[in-house]
Write a structure and sequence with these properties.
heterodimer; A: mainly alpha; 0% strand; disordered C terminus; B: 634 residues; alpha/beta; Metallo-beta-lactamase, Chain A; Rossmann fold; TATA-Binding Protein; cytoplasm (chain A)
C-alpha cells in the first residue's frame, strides 16, 4: 500500500465506524473491498493489518453493540473474510475477533441480522476465509454450518443461493483433506464436516417438503458441476437411491432441480461413464416427468457426448412428442416416421397441450426452441426426421393461421388455441428457417413455400411475425436446389419469386414502418445474393419494387430510410436501380442514386440513414461501382467533406473507413490481411511516394484525418490514428528520396494542428503538399497518441488514492474546500 | 318466463325479429336485405329488356328491388313498438310503418335517426335520379323463373321484392320515431321497460334491455369491442339476463379489421404511386370516418399528400358535418377534443387543407375540380346504383386503377359480375368491426346469460370453412342449466293497505306465507290488490242478490295446508293408533299406504292425499285427522 493511502486510511476507518456518518454510496464500499482483495492477493494480509492497526480497530469496533449501518457491517464481515483467507492472518484474528464476528455472539443473534445484506456479508465472509484446514475447524466449532443450513431457505434469494454455494465449497474443502492425502473413499471415513453436510442432504432428500428437496438437489447440482474428484462418485453412489426415490412420488417434487442435478451428474466426467445406474435413472425420469418438465432433460441427454443409444432414442421421442401430437391431431403424416408417430406417452402430452392456451403455447415454443438448438449440433440424433419435422412446422403455422384442416376433436381444439398466436408463429418460423439447412421431399418443400407465402400475404401477420417469415423465406431460397455451375434460382424458386414480388411491393407500402423496414432488409439480402442472376434481375425489374425502394428514401421513419439507403446501394451496385431517364419513366426527374444518397448524407436529420449512406459509399468504392469509377476523386472529396461536418461520430468514423479504402487503392494493398489470399494484382506505385500522395491531397483526405485525430469521440480519433500510422509505415517502407525538410509550410501546419488539438479547429489547413504531409507525419508522436487513446477515460481518476479521497470528501472530512465557502 | 320470438329476416346482420313478451309485441330492428339488387343490372345501364346477359351472367334489366322482411308470419299491425339498434338496421322502416297498418312507436337514438335518414335519402336519390328506369316483372312468374340460370333461378320469394320507397314515405316513417338516449328507461304499457345501451359499433348504435319486474331480455345487435369512433360498448348492464338475443355479428369473422385497414392503405398507396386511381365503394357514414382518420395519419408518411381524396354522395356534406356534432355519442378521446375545442374527427382538417373534397354528385363542381390520380369514396357498395357505377365504367378498363371493397355487406365478386371483363385491379378488404366469435365467447362468459338465442347460422362454422370450429357461437361453457323452466316466478300482484292485516307464517326458512282475501284490480298491466268491500248489510233479498253480482263472494276460507307427509312416521303413527297389517307401496308420484284389515287405501302424492275407504266416514275422519297432524295450517 502506498504511503498516501496509508495516511488516508485511519480517517476513513473512523468514518466507517461512525454511525453518524452514513455512507451514501455503497459502490464505494465495493470498490474498497476490491482494492483490499488486490492488495491481499499480492502480499501478506498479516503485514497489512500490522502496518495499519486502524483496520483491526475498525473490525473490533463492529463487535460493540451500537447502531451501525447494515452496509458497513456487511462490508466488515466480508473484509474480515478477505484478510482471514491467509492462514497466518486467520490465526492472528482467530483469538477474539473471528468467533465474535461469525459466531453466535456476533450479528447472528442481533437486530442487524434482519437485513439481508448482513446475512449475505456473513456468508461471503465465510466463503472467503474458508481456504485452509484451520478454517474448517473454526466452522465446526462456531456452529456456522447449522446456520448455513437454515440460510438455504432464506427469504432473500441471493442469500439462499449463496448459502447453497457455501455448503458446496465447504464440502469440497473438507474433502480435500489434510496434507497427508485425500480422505478414504469409504463414506464412513469422511471428515466430520463432510459427514454433517451429506447427512443434511440425505435428510432433506427424504423430506416431504419440496423446498427442502430443492435445496438439497441444488447443492448436489453445484457440487457435481464444479468438482470432479473421485469422492463425488462415492457421494453419487450413496445418494442416487434417494434421488431415484423422488421419482416414486406423485407428482415428482422439484422436477426442475432434479433435471438439473441429473444432467450435471451425466456431464461429470468421473460419473457418467461408470455403471452407477445413471442411465437407468435418466430413462426412468424421462418417463415419469410431464412433457413440459421432461423437455429440458431430453435436450440435455441428447447433447451428451456419450450415452446409450436407447436412452437417446427415448429422449428424442420425448422431445418430439408435442409435435407428434400436432401431426396426429391433423392427421397430416400418418406414421411417416417411427419417431414422430406419436405412440409413447401420447395421452400425457395431449393432456398438457390442451387444457389452456398458455400451457399449449409454452410447450410448443419450448419444443421448437429445443429442436432448433439440437439441429446444428454434431451429436444430433441420426437419422434426423427432417420430413416429419418440416410437416409439423408447416402444420403448426397453418393451425395458427386457421388454414389447417384438422380431422379430430383434438385438432379442432388445437386450432382454436393456436389461432393467431404470435409466439408460436415466431417460434415455428424460426424453426422452419433452421430446417432449411436440410432437404425435404419436393412436395413438402412446395408446402413450405406455400405457407411462407401465406404468411407474407396475410394482412393479419404481425410485424415481428412478418420479419421472421422474410428471414425464413430467404433461408429457404438459399437452400433451394441449384443447377451445378449456375448460381441463379431454380425454376420453382423463380416461380415463387414472381408471386413474392407483388407481396413485397404491397409490404413496402405498409402503414406500419417495421413492415416496410423488414421488407427492405429482405430486398437487400436477396439482391446481394442473386442480383447478378438473369432470372432474378428479370423478375425484379418487371416489378415496381425498385421504384418503391427509391421512394422509400424519403420515408418519414429514419430506420426505413436507412434500410432504403442500404437497399438502394445494393440495387445500384447490381445495376438494378431504375435509370433516371429510362423510356418507362419519361421526364427523368429522378436523380441518380449517388446524388440521392449524397443528399441524404448531407441533409438527413437522423443518424441512421447517414450512417447507412456512408456504408454504401464505402462499399461502392471497394467494389468500384460504375458511378464512382467515373470520377473517384471527386466522389471521395465530396463524401469526406460532408462526413467531416457530421455530428454523428459513427458517420465520421465510417468516413475514415472510406478514406482507408481510398488510401489502399491509391497506394496498394496494406499488409495482406489474409495470408491465403491470392496475391492481389497490385502494381506497387512505381512513382515516388510524394507523387502517389497527390490524389490524397487533392481529395483533402489529410485535413479530414487530422481533424478526426483530435475528435472529441475516442473511436474516431483512434481510427484516424491507425490510418495515419498505416500511412507512416507505408512511408518508411518506400525508399522515398525526399527527406522531410523543415520548411515554413511544415511549421505553419504543425502550429495549426497544435491549435486544433487545443480545441480551436476553426482555421482550415489549406492546400497541403505531399512533402509537407510527410514531414508533419514524421514529426508527430502518433504512437504516444494511440497509447493515450487506448487508456480508458477514467484512468486518471481510477486510483485507490482517489477512491479514498472521494469517500472522505463525501462526508466532508477533507476540509480543503471549506475555506472557499467563507 | 314466457317469450315468443319470430324471425322475419334470414339475414343475421340485417335482423328483423318480433318479440312477444308480457303481452307486448316488440319488433327488434327492421333491416333491409339489399343483396337482391345484385341480380339487377347497374341502374344507368338499364334499358328496356326484361333480362340481359352480361359475360355469362343473366341480370334483370330493371330498377333494382329489395327483399323485405317477412310480412306474412305475423300481423304487423299488431306490433306495438319497434326498437332500432343502428342506422344500418332501419332501412326497411318505411315498408313496415307505411304499408302494414302499423300504429305503434319507433324508438331510436338521435344519431341513428339522423344518419339513417341520410342513408335512406342517398338510396332514394340514387334510384330516383335515373328517370327512365322501368320495372320488369314477367321474370318473376314461377314458370319462367325456374327456367332461368342461377342465381336468378334460386332467388326466393321474388314476388315480395319491392321497389324503393319514396322520400315522402321516408319522412312519414321517420316522423313515427321517438328519440331516446343511452340508459333512458322507457315504460311500455306498464308491462315492460326498455333501455338502450351503447353498443360501440356506430354513432348512436344501441343494444336494448327489455325487462319486466322479474325477467330481463337483452337484445345484442351490431356491437363492437374495438376502439373506433363511437362510445364503447356497455357490457356491464347486460349482466343477469335471462335471455340474450344475439344478432349482428361480424360478417367476415376471418378478417381482422386492423389487418384490413393496413391492407387498404398499402394497396391504396401502391396504386396511387403507380399513377392509378383508387375507387372505394362505400356507405356515406360509418367505416368511412375511420378510413379517413387512418388515411389522415398515413398519407404524409406514404408521400401521398398531393393526391386528392374525393367523397361523392348526395349526403356527403351532411354526413361529414353530422359526425362532428354528435360529441356525446363519441368515444372518450374524441369527446375530450370537443372541449379543446377541436373537431373530434380529423377529416375536418383534411377538408380545410383541401386534401379531402366532397361533392353531392358527379355533375357540377366536381367535373371541373377532378384531377387524377385520385382516391374516390362513393356509393353504392352494391355497385348497382349511385356514382360508383360511373367510375366503374370510367376506370374499369385500365389495370393501373384499383377498386377496394371495404363494406362487407355484398359479395365483391357478385358486385363486379356485370362489369366483366374488367382490367382494373380488385382488392377485397372487408372492414367489419362487429363482434367476432372469440369476442362473443368472452362476452358471454362475462355477462352470463341464462339462455342465448341466436340465428342458426351462428351455431355452426361457415359452410366455406367447415373445419373452423372457432367460427361459431360456443354454447358450452360454465353457464347454468339451459332449460327454460328454471327460475322466473310468476308475477305477484302488488299489495297495498292489506299489508297490515297479513299474518305471515314461516313455512320453511326464508319463506313465509299468508292468506289474503282481496279484489284484484288490473289496468295497464299494473296489478293492485284492494281490500274487499264489506258485504252490504242484508237489507232485502233482491238487493242482496244484486250485491253478490258485483262483488266477488268472500266466503270464509278453509285453512290452507302445506308440508309433506313423512311416510315412515305416518305409518308409525297409524300403528300407534291401532292399525296393523300396514303395507306401503311406492308409486310413480308418491306412496300408497294400504290398511289391509280395514280395506282402506291412503294415496299420498306430492300435491294431494286421498283416503279411499268404503263408506266408513268415521274411519275416514280419523285417518284425515292423523294426516292433518303432519301438515301445517294457516
Amino acid at each position: 500500500m502506498d504511503p498516501e493511502c496509508s495516511q488516508l486510511l485511519p480517517a476513513l476507518c473512523a468514518v466507517l465506524a461512525d454511525p453518524r456518518q452514513p455512507m451514501a454510496d455503497d459502490t464505494c464500499l465495493e470498490k474498497l473491498l476490491d482494492w483490499f482483495k488486490t492488495i491481499t492477493e499480492a502480499g501478506s494480509s498479516l503485514l497489512l493489518l500490522q502496518e495499519n492497526p486502524c483496520l483491526v480497530e475498525l473490525l473490533c469496533h463492529m463487535l460493540k453493540p451500537q447502531d451501525l449501518s447494515s452496509r458497513v457491517l456487511s462490508f466488515s464481515l466480508r473484509l474480515t473474510g478477505v484478510f482471514a483467507a491467509q492462514e497466518d492472518c486467520f490465526q492472528y484474528l482467530q483469538g477474539e475477533l473471528l468467533p465474535r464476528l461469525f459466531g453466535e455472539a456476533g450479528p447472528l443473534g442481533g437486530a442487524a441480522w434482519t437485513a439481508p445484506t448482513v446475512r449475505s456479508g456473513w456468508i461471503q465472509g465465510l466463503r472467503s476465509l474458508a481456504r485452509h484446514p484451520s478454517a474448517l475447524h473454526f466452522l465446526a466449532d462456531c456452529g456456522a454450518v447449522d446456520t448455513i443450513f437454515s440460510l438455504q431457505g432464506d427469504s432473500s434469494l441471493f442469500v439462499a443461493s449463496a448459502a447453497g454455494q457455501l455448503l458446496v465449497h465447504i464440502l469440497g474443502l473438507s474433502m480435500q483433506g489434510p496434507a497427508d492425502g485425500p480422505p478414504s473413499l469409504q463414506a464412513g471415513d469422511w471428515p466430520a464436516c463432510a459427514k454433517k453436510i451429506v447427512g443434511h442432504i440425505e435428510e432433506s432428500l427424504r423430506s416431504t417438503a419440496t423446498p427442502q428437496i430443492t435445496q438439497a438437489l441444488n447443492v448436489l447440482t453445484t457440487t457435481f458441476g464444479h468438482c470432479h474428484d473421485p469422492w463425488t462418485r462415492v457421494l453419487w453412489v450413496r445418494l442416487s437411491p434417494l434421488v431415484a426415490g423422488l421419482l416414486e412420488k406423485d407428482p415428482v417434487p422439484a422436477a426442475h432441480s432434479l433435471v438439473d442435478l441429473l444432467l450435471s451428474v451425466a456431464r461429470s466426467p468421473g460419473l457418467s461413464s461408470s455403471s452407477c445406474g445413471l442411465w437407468e435413472t435418466l430413462a426412468q425420469t424421462l418417463s415419469r416427468l410431464s412433457p413440459t418438465q421432461a423437455g429440458p432433460l431430453a435436450l440435455g441427454i441428447l447433447k451428451l457426448q456419450d450415452c446409450p443409444q436407447a436412452l437417446r432414442a427415448q429422449a428424442f421421442a420425448v422431445l418430439l412428442q408435442p409435435l407428434a401430437c400436432v401431426l396426429k391431431a391433423t392427421a397430416q403424416a400418418p406414421g411417416a416416421s417411427g419417431v414422430l408417430d406419436g405412440t409413447v406417452g401420447d395421452f400425457a402430452t395431449v393432456d398438457t397441450l390442451l387444457p389452456s392456451k398458455a400451457a399449449c403455447v409454452g410447450l410448443l415454443c419450448r419444443t421448437l426452441a429445443h429442436l432448433e438448438l439440437l439441429l446444428p449440433l454434431p451429436q444430433r440424433p441420426c437419422p434426423w426426421p427432417q420430413a416429419p419435422l418440416l410437416g409439423a412446422a408447416v402444420t403448426l403455422l397453418q393451425l395458427c393461421q386457421g388454414s389447417a384442416s384438422p380431422t379430430s376433436d383434438t385438432g379442432h381444439h388445437l386450432c382454436a388455441l393456436l389461432l393467431g398466436c404470435v409466439r408460436v408463429q415466431r417460434a415455428a418460423l424460426d424453426f422452419l428457417g433452421t430446417l432449411s439447412q436440410g432437404t425435404g421431399p419436393p412436395e413438402l418443400v412446395t408446402e413450405v413455400f406455400a405457407v411462407l407465402l401465406e404468411y407474407l400475404r396475410s394482412p393479419d401477420s404481425s410485424p415481428t411475425v412478418l420479419k421472421k417469415a422474410f428471414q425464413a423465406t430467404f433461408r429457404w431460397l438459399l437452400s433451394s436446389p441449384k443447377t451445378p455451375g449456375c448460381w441463379d434460382l431454380d425454376p420453382q424458386a423463380l416461380l415463387f419469386l414472381r408471386e413474392l414480388l407483388p407481396v413485397l411491393q404491397k409490404r413496402l407500402c405498409s402503414p406500419c414502418w417495421e413492415v416496410r423496414d423488414s421488407g427492405l432488409e429482405f430486398l437487400t439480402q436477396m439482391t446481394g445474393r442473386w442480383g447478378g442472376q438473369a432470372g432474378f434481375r428479370h423478375a425484379l425489374l418487371a416489378s415496381e419494387v425498385p421504384k418503391l425502394t427509391e421512394q422509400l428514401l424519403r420515408d418519414p421513419e429514419s430506420y426505413v430510410r436507412a434500410s432504403a439507403v442500404a437497399a438502394t446501394g445494393q440495387l445500384s451496385s447490381q445495376g438494378l436501380c431504375i435509370s433516371p431517364a429510362s423510356p418507362e419513366h419519361p421526364g427523368g426527374q429522378q436523380k441518380s442514386p449517388l446524388s440521392e444518397l449524397l443528399h441524404i448524407l448531407s441533409t438527413d436529420s437522423e443518424g441512421f440513414p447517414r450512417r447507412a449512406a456512408m456504408h454504401v459509399f464505402t462499399q461502392w468504392l471497394r467494389d468500384s461501382h460504375a458511378d464512382v469509377v467515373g470520377d473517384t476523386e471527386e466522389f471521395v472529396a465530396g463524401v469526406l467533406q460532408v462526413a467531416s461536418q457530421d455530428l454523428d461520430w459513427e458517420v465520421r468514423a465510417q468516413g475514415l473507413e472510406l478514406a482507408l479504402v481510398f488510401l489502399e487503392q491509391t497506394l496498394g494493398q496494406p499488409g495482406s490481411p489474409c495470408p491465403y489470399a491470392v496475391t492481389p494484382p497490385v502494381v506497387a506505385p512505381a512513382c515516388p511516394l510524394a507523387q502517389a500522395l497527390q490524389p490524397l491531397c487533392r481529395v483533402r483526405l489529410f485535413e479530414f484525418a487530422f481533424r478526426a485525430l483530435f475528435d472529441c469521440d475516442r473511436p474516431v480519433a483512434q481510427k484516424s490514428c491507425d490510418l495515419l500510422l498505416f500511412l507512416r509505415a507505408k512511408m518508411a517502407s518506400s525508399s522515398s528520396p525526399q527527406e522531410a525538410r523543415s520548411s515554413p509550410d511544415v511549421a505553419s501546419v504543425e502550429a495549426a494542428l497544435q491549435r486544433w488539438q487545443a480545441g480551436d479547429q476553426a482555421q482550415p489547413l489549406g492546400d497541403l503538399e505531399p512533402e509537407v504531409v510527410l514531414a508533419v507525419l514524421k514529426s508527430m508522436d502518433l504512437e504516444g497518441l494511440r497509447g493515450a487513446l487506448a487508456e480508458s477515460s477514467d484512468h486518471v481518476e481510477k486510483s485507490p488514492q482517489s477512491l479514498l479521497q472521494d469517500m472522505l470528501a463525501t462526508v466532508g472530512i477533507l476540509g480543503e474546500n471549506e475555506a472557499d465557502c467563507y | 318466463l314466457k317469450l315468443c320470438k319470430y324471425c322475419l329476416s334470414g339475414h343475421p346482420t340485417l335482423p328483423c325479429n318480433v318479440l312477444k313478451f308480457k303481452s307486448t309485441t316488440i319488433m327488434l330492428d327492421c333491416g333491409l336485405d339489399m343483396t337482391s339488387t345484385l341480380n339487377f343490372l347497374p341502374l344507368p345501364l338499364v334499358q328496356r329488356y326484361e333480362l340481359k346477359e352480361c359475360s355469362g351472367h343473366v341480370f334483370v334489366d330493371s330498377v333494382p328491388e329489395f327483399c323485405l322482411p317477412e310480412t306474412e308470419l305475423i300481423d304487423l299491425s299488431t306490433v306495438d313498438v319497434i326498437l332500432i339498434s343502428n342506422y344500418h338496421c332501419m332501412m326497411a322502416l318505411p315498408y313496415i310503418t307505411e304499408h302494414t297498418g302499423f300504429t305503434g312507436t319507433v324508438y331510436a337514438t338521435e344519431p341513428t335517426v339522423q344518419i339513417g335518414r341520410l342513408l335512406m335519402e342517398e338510396l332514394v336519390n340514387f334510384i330516383e335520379r335515373v328517370p327512365k328506369a322501368q320495372s320488369a316483372s314477367l321474370w318473376k312468374n314461377k314458370d319462367i323463373q325456374r327456367l332461368l340460370p342461377s342465381p336468378l333461378k334460386d332467388a326466393v320469394e321474388v314476388s315480395t321484392w319491392r321497389r324503393c320507397y319514396t322520400m315522402q314515405e321516408v319522412n312519414s316513417a321517420l316522423s313515427k320515431i321517438q328519440l331516446v338516449g343511452y340508459s333512458q328507461k322507457i315504460e311500455l304499457f306498464g308491462a315492460v321497460q326498455v333501455t338502450p345501451l351503447s353498443s360501440g359499433y356506430a354513432l348512436g348504435s344501441s343494444n336494448w334491455i327489455i325487462q319486466s319486474h322479474y325477467e330481463k331480455v337483452s337484445y345484442v345487435s351490431g356491437s363492437s369491442l374495438l376502439t373506433t369512433h363511437p362510445q364503447p360498448m356497455d357490457q356491464a348492464s347486460l349482466k343477469n339476463s335471462d335471455v340474450l338475443i344475439l344478432t349482428g355479428l361480424t360478417q367476415i369473422p376471418t378478417a381482422n379489421p386492423d389487418g384490413m385497414v393496413g391492407e387498404f392503405c398499402s394497396n391504396l398507396a401502391l396504386t396511387v404511386r403507380n399513377g392509378g386511381n383508387v375507387l372505394v365503394p362505400c356507405y356515406p357514414s360509418g367505416v368511412i370516418y375511420d378510413l379517413l382518420e387512418c388515411l389522415y395519419q398515413y398519407i404524409d408518411s406514404a408521400g401521398l399528400s398531393n393526391i386528392p381524396f374525393y367523397f361523392i354522395s348526395p349526403v356527403a356534406n351532411s354526413s361529414l358535418e353530422f359526425s362532428q356534432i354528435f360529441a356525446e355519442w363519441l368515444c372518450h378521446n374524441k369527446q375530450t377534443k370537443v372541449y379543446l375545442p377541436e373537431p373530434p374527427f380529423p377529416h375536418a382538417e383534411l377538408i380545410q387543407t383541401n386534401k379531402l373534397k366532397h361533392y353531392p354528385s358527379l355533375h357540377g363542381d366536381f367535373s371541373s375540380d377532378f384531377r387524377q390520380p385520385c382516391v374516390v369514396f362513393t356509393g353504392h357498395p352494391s355497385l348497382r346504383f349511385g356514382d360508383v357505377v360511373h367510375f366503374m365504367e370510367l376506370w374499369g378498363k385500365s389495370s393501373l386503377n384499383t377498386v377496394i371493397f371495404t363494406e362487407p355487406d355484398f359479395s365483391y365478386l357478385e358486385a363486379l359480375a356485370p362489369y366483366q371483363p374488367l382490367a382494373m385491379k380488385c382488392i377485397y378488404c372487408p372492414i367489419d368491426t362487429r363482434l367476432n366469435f372469440i369476442q362473443v365467447s368472452k362476452l358471454l362468459k362475462e355477462v352470463q346469460p341464462l339462455h342465448v338465442v341466436c340465428p342458426e347460422q351462428y351455431t355452426q362454422p361457415p359452410p366455406a370453412q367447415s373445419h373452423r370450429m372457432d367460427l361459431m357461437v360456443d354454447c358450452r361453457g360454465p353457464r347454468s342449466s339451459p332449460c327454460l323452466s328454471s327460475v322466473s316466478p310468476t308475477e305477484t300482484p302488488v299489495c297495498f293497505q292489506l299489508a297490515d292485516a297479513l299474518v305471515p307464517m314461516e313455512i320453511k326458512p326464508g319463506i313465509s306465507l299468508a292468506t289474503v282475501s282481496a279484489v284484484l284490480h288490473t289496468k295497464d298491466n299494473k296489478h293492485v290488490l284492494q281490500p274487499p268491500p264489506r258485504p252490504a248489510q242484508p237489507t232485502g233479498g233482491k238487493k242482496r242478490k244484486r250485491a253478490s253480482d258485483d262483488i266477488p263472494d268472500c266466503k270464509v276460507l278453509k285453512p290452507l295446508l302445506s308440508g309433506s307427509i313423512p311416510v315412515e312416521q305416518f305409518v308409525q303413527t297409524l300403528e300407534k293408533h291401532g292399525f296393523s297389517d300396514i303395507k306401503v307401496e311406492d308409486t310413480a308420484k308418491g306412496h300408497i299406504v294400504l290398511l289391509q284389515e280395514a280395506e282402506t287405501l291412503i294415496q299420498i302424492e306430492e300435491d294431494s292425499t286421498h283416503i279411499i275407504c268404503d263408506n266408513d266416514e268415521m274411519l275416514r275422519v280419523r285417518l284425515r285427522d292423523l294426516v292433518l297432524k303432519f301438515l301445517q295450517k294457516f
